[in-house]
Fold this sequence. Notes:
- This protein has 326 residues and is mainly beta.
- It is 8% helix and 14% strand.
- The protein has three helices and 16 strands.
- β15 and β16 (324-325) form a beta hairpin.
- It is elongated, with a radius of gyration of 25 Å.
Amino acid sequence: MAPSYLMRFILTTSFILTQLESLELRENLLKHLPESISKLTKLKRLDLGDNEIEELPPYLGYLPGLQELWLDHNQLQKLPPEIGLLTNLTYLDVSENRLEEIPNEISGLINLTDLDLAQNLLEYLPDGLAKLSRLTILKLDQNRLQRLNTNIGDCDSMQELILTENFLSELPASIGRMTKLSNLNVDRNALESLPIEIGNCANLGVLSLRDNKLKKLPPELGNCGVLHVLDVSGNQLQYLPYSLVNLQLKAVWLSENQAQPLLTFQPDTDEATGEQVLTCFLLPQQEYQPITPDLFKYLSENVNNVKHATKETLKFYDEHSKFSLK
């Protein structure tokens, strides 16, 4: 149905659709919503995904029964404060938009359990987000976040937290209050350390920290008794904490080229601190440098040597060092 006819249909029939509970308007090239949509007071599910909506009207907040709202893949730059009036909302998807901020009034979504904010332009989160005590899934991947609010741990019902591809250099200590957290993904950020409080995440099963700047992991990670998947490939780790021997790990990823999910570790001693640690043939990790034209030329000219190089002897150094084969 063409957009103009669709809008006319909503305008002319909304008065007889007052009992409507589900409305699917996905992929209709919609750019705005008619005010008459506010008459659909029985509406529980509204799908506006894959349209061209640039702005949401305030009267969208006047749908008291709304439980599920899809706004993914539009052109939204902001959400109206009235979004906080949707107190029965349990699911909200505003991924793949152009959002630069979220109104603090989002704290009014007291029944929200699933929030998808992925693929936007968010640089920070409102403090009100921490008041969503029933939130179990929060997706924030592919934004511009440089930090998380210190009170994020107040979302103590959180089970899945996705922070992939942001600019985070640290996680707040309050994350340790997320005792129900089972899946934490912070791949491709700029993490330099983990808070020791992460050891309080008793239900953490999957921890993915791929492609960060971690030089060590806290020994307290060994307190995460159900942790079974640990991905720390693409970091700068010298060793792993010995406390990991207490865990029933099924997969430990230290390299993208790793052939097996499980490795054989040996106990060792950190010369600097004297503490017992774990090491293996993939530790310490080497910083990865993408192949540049000059490096490709070097490899091509020395192809015979490269053919005989093993994974243990092929090393990449940072941009200030020269490539070498040992």
